[in-house]
Amino acid sequence: MESFQKSILLALLLSAWLPGLGFCYSITKGPENATVLAGSEAWFNCTVSAGWKVIIWLSKGSPVLTVTSSQGSLETTERFTSRNYTSGDQFTSELIIHNTQLSDSGRVECSIQQPSDNNFAFLSVQVNGSLLIKNSTLTVKENQTIEIVCEALGWAPAPDIAWMRNDSLVDKSSYGTQQSPGSQGLHNALSTLTLTPRDTEVLTCLADIEALPSPQNATVTLIFDNSATENDYSEDSSSTWVVVLAVVLSFLGIVLLIVVIVVAVRCCLKRRGSTYQNEIRKVSAEKKKDGDLENNQRSGSENLGYIPEELWNTEQSPRLASLPPMSSKFAGPEDNLHISSVPKVRPQRRPDYLMSPKKIRNVTLV
Known about the structure:
The chain is of the alpha+beta class. Among the domains are: 22-126, Immunoglobulin-like; 130-225, Immunoglobulins (Immunoglobulin-like), CATH 2.60.40.10. The protein has helices spanning 2-21, 228-299, 309-322; strands at 27-29, 34-37, 42-48, 54-59, 62-68, 72-75, 80-87, 90-97, 106-111, 120-126, 130-133, 137-141, 146-155, 160-165, 168-169, 175-181, 187-195, 201-208, 216-225. The strands form 4 sheets. It has a 6-stranded mixed sheet with strand order 2-10-9-4-5-6, with no helix packed on it. It has a 5-stranded mixed sheet with strand order 12-19-18-14-15, with no helix packed on it. Strands 1-3-8-7 form a 4-stranded antiparallel sheet, with no helix packed on it. A hairpin with a 5-residue loop joins β16 (175-181) and β17 (187-195). It comes from Ficedula albicollis (Collared flycatcher). Residues 1-24 form the signal peptide. This is Immunoglobulin superfamily member 5. The chain crosses the membrane at residues 241-265.
């Protein structure tokens, strides 16, 4: 009985002595995890029971702010500040991190200089980069399959990409997304949507990360052109005619080339043949000339005074009959001369050979 009373007295003494030493208070509610966008603010609360003496805030293990019950907040940098709240016998210290950076991501701790289970949380700073579709408007033809590319650059972490087609989500099997690391710990993503439009549509690319209140988006309008089919037909027809014309011209060119080659070959052959014939004729002429000279040497020279007998008889007979009788006297120069009207007879050269037998000479020129 006496020992029990001593135990109770010892407990009462400890309860009265510990508050004075500052070991009777504890953290009743510690900070909670936070995810924020880079450049924004992050808040962390730490609530302790009555009798606290000091609260130290640490970021990634380094002290950034101290709060004491006697002096209040002791701030060492403008990026880390605090606000204090009192409710009943509990005290709440709120740590505010301004202009958060990607490097601030990590463990945030509230310390009261004694062990505690719920005295830390994690800060996640995320970066929303750019999101774009290269073409804001596209004109598509009937039955034309196209690819729309959505590019997300400079994100942390890599965003989740989704597509909407006229306010309806597109099945994931219709598009594919590739992620790649960027600079300074950032990430890039490239999403490609494949589809065959049937009408004018509005496509929306969505990029989402946890810190964003709503997904970031980029849109493109697909204009369906019904006249594209006619244009295609016209273009196909034009292309067909061009191909046909090219083939025909090529064929005609080949034929013309063949004709030119044949004509050139024939001309060359004809020229060679003519040269050969001329040489043959020249040789024949020289042989004939040599033969004629040889014949002339054998048969003698040609008698240029030869007159056929028939012509001699017919021409000489009448002329001889018409001559007047020869006078024995010659008239002097002073006598009157009587000019006869008888025509003059051209003296004929008498041949030095007999008139007969008759000789005929035939010459044949080749």
